[in-house]
Amino acid sequence: MYRDPVESLEPLHHRQAAIRTLRVGMIGIGTVGSGTFRVLARNRADIAARAGRSIELVMVAARDLERAASIVGESVALTADAMQVATHPDVDVVVEVAGGTGPARDWVLAAIAHGKHVVTANKALLAVHGAEIFAAAREKGVIVAYEGAVAVSIPIIKALREGLAANRIEWVAGIINGTTNFILSKMRDEGLDFAAALAQAQALGYAEADPSFDIEGIDAAHKLTLLAANAFGMPLRFADAQVEGITALQGVDVACAEQLGHRIKLLGVARRQATGVELRVQPVLVPATHLMAQVNGSMNAVMVKSDAAGLTMYYGAGAGSEQTASAVIADLVDVARLDGVNAAQHVPHLGVHAHATNALAVVPRAAVHTSHYLRVPVHAVNQIQAIAANLAEWKVPVRQVALAAERPGMGPQVLVLTGPVEQGTLDLAVHALRARAEVAGAVTTLRVESLEG
Questions:
Q1: Distance between CA atoms of 282 and 264, rounded to whole angstroms?
Q2: Nearest Cα to 36, choosing from 117, 98, 113?
Q3: Which of 116, 123, 158, 223 is catalytic?
Q4: Of all helices (H) and strands (E), which one includes residue 213?
């Protein structure tokens, strides 16, 4: 039913050497892998014309060989040993779409050691082991490409590397997790609480049975780490990212944000500061009139502020088989075009700012300077000015203060939008506020992002 790779690849190599076909070995043939095979086959002529040569899938590693054979047919060699794909002499580039951070690291490093280029959609692998992988790739002079690991159908890595290559990047901010964006959209549009919105996302296939990586912000932080490396030339600093998911977000705050003319989004932000780079993922309020607030459902969007181009925004699907395949194949086209040129340009330029250590530092949480939203439960509606006055005592600028619309079973709530203030200062003010007699419970705080130029 399927060809043995050892017996079948060598004749294929000799047969196609004259036309310099780029020979691809793929590890994994699940959702992304099968989509990649379909798009390669369906658009073969267009892809070859754009790449300058044919790109052919010649070998696949899969756990279930029968299933793999039903997808790729008899023209592709199959093996259950992923390392065979990673090291086979007749494979030019390895596409790793199996996922995970353990075995995938070994496969990718083995491929690099054997002089093969690598394309991957595995953001967790790169966020955790990227420094090691990119260093190995630079040593061997091969390309590691990963457009599909960041924002699926949005070519944001290419935009940062090529379209904005002349620019100094000031900040990157993105809705880069489709699952959480779907949940937040449902909480706003249908008034669902978090648990109900998550259940709906799982029923529709937008969330996994164990959605922890998505709803706790880890997936977005993996992607943000890669964006920051490309935007600022900094090392991959996933362990230093400040990560907060949406599991504690209450429906009342989604409604209160709307009352104040804002919407809540899980946003990844990488922002250049004088002392380093902010690297954070958290639910934030965005003005309801802003383009980022209009990104709904499972869609993704990334906004970039740079000195010459100004504000640019990129929008597209945040998940999907062929959507991810589109990014994977775009990377393959780049490999086909650039095979033999300086591969160091196709990994984040680590160490480019080694002479300026501040540029590589991650700004600590207490030093992050943003506006904030506060929801303060009080015993009586006439205590609204006392709350504002107390914040002013702590040098927290108050831009807007209002009473929340009445909700069944909930007492009066004072809503505050502050001006920009350091997180450390706000934390002290909120701690003092909670001790005041007029405050009737825990104070909820969220950051506010204007996303202005």
A1: 10
A2: 98
A3: 223
A4: helix 212-215
* pTM for the predicted model, two decimal places: 0.89
Residue among 166, 105, 165 nearest 135 (CA)? 105
Q: Determine whether 223 is an active site residue.
A: yes
Arithmetic mean of pLDDT, 386-414: 94
Q: Which range among 92-101, 116-125, 198-207, 333-342 shows the weakest confidence by mean pLDDT?
A: 333-342
* Domain parsing of the chain, residue ranges: 5-149, 156-318, 366-448
The helix or strand, by DSSP H or E, that contains position 263, with its residue range, turns out to be: strand 262-273
5-149 architecture in CATH?
3-Layer(aba) Sandwich (3.40)
Which pLDDT belongs to residue 20?
A: 81
pLDDT per residue as tens digits for the range 291-314: 999 999 999 999 999 999 999 999
Query: Domain spanning 366-448: which CATH class is it, in words?
Result: alpha beta
According to CATH, the superfamily of the domain at 156-318 is Dihydrodipicolinate Reductase; domain 2 (3.30.360.10)
Q: How many CB atoms lie within 10 A of CB 441?
A: 14
CA distances (Å), origin 306, targets 165, 168, 171, 274, 390: 10, 6, 7, 16, 38
